Amino acid sequence: MKICISSKGGSTTSVLDPRFGRAAYFILVDSDTMKTEVIENSAIASGGGAGIASGQLVVDKGVEVVITGNVGPNATKVLEASNVAVFRGVPATIEENIEKYQKGLLEKISTAVPAHFGMGSMEA
């Protein structure tokens, strides 16, 4: 299974970015092999539509699970339409969030935050 974690940095020792659409990076992890892929989020500086672009990016990569802090309404629509499950990560490293997910310790996110929730703020 391919998992995507929003990240403030480009490695598995980086800390979770609580924003999805405007996360600095996405760390993709194959839960079977633990192989990783790092993607810089080009939507981070967009004036609008960051959630849609970010959501479509991870869907196009074949992601089945997203771990992040918050997801806006537009990203939620894209992810739900592709049956991507979204879980609330914790303020810890990407590695720690993967471990918590695998142990069933992360909460499933079922409600989007308001539109533009993460804009203009480094913390959502």
From TrEMBL:
SUPFAM superfamilies: Nitrogenase accessory factor-like
Domain of life: Bacteria
All copies of domain Dinitrogenase iron-molybdenum cofactor biosynthesis, residue ranges: 14-103
InterPro entries tied to this protein: Di-Nase_FeMo-co_biosynth, DiNase_FeMo-co_biosyn_sf, MTH1175_dom
Coiled-coil region list: none
Pfam families per UniProt: Nitro_FeMo-Co (PF02579)
PANTHER family associated with the record: DINITROGENASE IRON-MOLYBDENUM COFACTOR PROTEIN-RELATED, IRON-MOLYBDENUM PROTEIN
Protein name: Dinitrogenase iron-molybdenum cofactor biosynthesis
Organism: Desulforamulus reducens (strain ATCC BAA-1160 / DSM 100696 / MI-1) (Desulfotomaculum reducens)
Organism phylogeny: Bacteria, Bacillati, Bacillota, Clostridia, Eubacteriales
